[in-house]
Structure formats: structure tokens, C-alpha cells
Amino acid sequence: MKKVGIRFKKTGKLSYYTFDGETINLSDSVVVDTEKGEEIGVVAKVLELEENEELEKVKRLATEEDFENQRLMDDKAKEALSFCKEQVKKLDLDMKLLSAEYTLDGTKLTIYFVSEERVDFRELVKIIASKYKARIELRQIGPRDEAKEYPTLGMCGKEICCRTHLQSFEPVTIKMAKEQGLQINMSKLSGACGKLMCCLRYEEELYKENLKKLPKVGELVKVKGEKEKGKVTSVDILNLTVKVRFGLEDEDEERYETYPAGDVKWTPKNVKKEEKADESEEIDIEEIVE
Fold first, then answer.
1. How far is CA 172 from CA 34, 143, 150, 196, 201, in A?
2. What pLDDT is attached to residue 97?
3. Residue 200 to residue 184: CA distance in whole angstroms
4. pLDDT given for residue 270 in this prediction
5. Nearest 10 degrees: Cα torsion 40, 42, 43, 44
6. Is the same domain home to 203 and 220?
7. Which structural domain range is residue 190 located in?
């Protein structure tokens, strides 16, 4: 018996099941029961089942009949989304519908929407349920999940990370941008969703580690091979180099030199606590649609 990790969306989180058939491979499509109902997922991991580990079982490998049924459900979901948009307009609800999906067995219809405020959509649910005779869920999502709905390019020129490989959103803060020496310009640090770009987190650990090896700008330092002390004017965090100004007391002898961090000695000052404003920029990561 194998343990398999199943993914239901391109960048969705993995859900684990057991498979007791003869063979199962990566990229195989399978039918499983989820909290929503019956769904088709793709095998992303195949592992050995640990002792005493209890998981739901894979119902079967997906058949051509399952795929055809899924196509019918997708068409039905598009039609339902169009109907729902008409009802939202009639009821004058402050919400933007993004997408809809049916479970494979057609027992549940989930509609995703965004709104800046809480919306009383009870009347809308009654109308939808009376027409489609299924369990209805209207799920409000955040701006990051909204960005995943569209094929959007990031500032790097590539498709945004949340549509290509990110499985979950980790906290991103202004403090990270400061540690990387970036100018705090929100228009340049924000992604397509309007939140801080996820890629600010990718090299955060490297920047943190390198910053420990560098003096701060404005520090007085002693440089190997130099008789007088100099003042740090800038640092290159990734290349671990320090630019130092000499001739502090005589402008006529002023000069600038760049050195490896290992050639620079200084006495670290007491590190002040970060302002609370930095922490207030942390992203809310509870708005994730799996």
C-alpha cells in the first residue's frame, strides 16, 4: 500500500491518501472523496505508508468517463457563474464573482468572490440553490488569491509566482525590504495583488546572515592596511563588500575605497528594537483557497 500526495489545483496544497492498487505513478489522475465531495486530483508524490498512519483511500484511477463528466461539470459551473453574476447585479450586492466549480459528482457548487466588506448573501444562496439543487458555498478570498485567477506577469517579466509554484503564502514584511537595502517605495515593492511581493522572502535568510558580517552605514571602522579609521558610506550585502570614506578631518585628503568585509573591523553598537510599524506590515495569510 502506498501513500500518495494529491493536488487538485496547479499550485494547491497536497492532500494525502492511501492507494492499495497494483501501481500508481506521478502525474496519474485519481478520483478521491474530499470535504467538498468527489473530485479528480493529480498524483504529485508517491511515498511509503508509515505504520499506524490512517488516511482516506483513493477511490480509483480516473477514467475517460470521469474526465468527460468533469468537462460537463466545468461547463455547468460556467453557466452557474454567469447566472450568479446576473443575480448579484439584481440584488445590488457589493461583491465581485471570480470563478465557480462543481465537484465531480455534482453535489456541491462553490463560488469564489472578493469584496472589501462583509456581504449578506443569504438571499443569493437561496436563489442559486433553488435553481441548481446542490449544496452551495460562497467563499470570500483575499487579493492574493484573486491575483491567482488571472495570467498576470510580475515585475520580473515572468508569470506571477502564485500561479506557477507557490503552494501557500508566507508572511512578508517591510522589515525584509529594509534588510535587503531596498528603497521603501510601495509601488515598486507591491505585486499584482497590491500586497508586498512574495519574492522579498526568497533570499531573506541569506541577507540576514550576510548582514551579521557587515558594519552599518555611518560606522567608524578600522581597515586592514590603513592607519586611520574611516566611515562606512555603503555596503554590498550580497557581495560582502564595504565602501569606506577616509580623510574625515581633512576634506583635501578625502578618498573612498571598497574592501571585502573580512578586511574591516568595527565595534558593533547595541541593536535597537525594530519599530512596531515594521511588524504591522505582515501579510494576512489566512485568506488562502486550497
1. 31, 14, 22, 6, 6
2. 94
3. 12
4. 56
5. -140
6. no
7. 169-207
